[in-house]
Amino acid sequence: MSPKCCPAPPPIDPNVDPDEELARYAKALGHPARVKILRFLLEREDCMAGAISGELPLAQSTVSQHLKVLRESGLIHGEVDGTRICYCADADRIERLQGLLDGLTSFVQA
Amino acid sequence: MSPKCCPAPPPIDPNVDPDEELARYAKALGHPARVKILRFLLEREDCMAGAISGELPLAQSTVSQHLKVLRESGLIHGEVDGTRICYCADADRIERLQGLLDGLTSFVQA
DNA sequence: CGGTTATATCGTACTTCTACGAAATTCGAA
DNA sequence: TTCGAATTTCGTAGAAGTACGATATAACCG
Question: I need a surface site. Which of A32, A99, A110, B107 has the fewest CB within 10 A?
Answer without folding.
Answer: A110
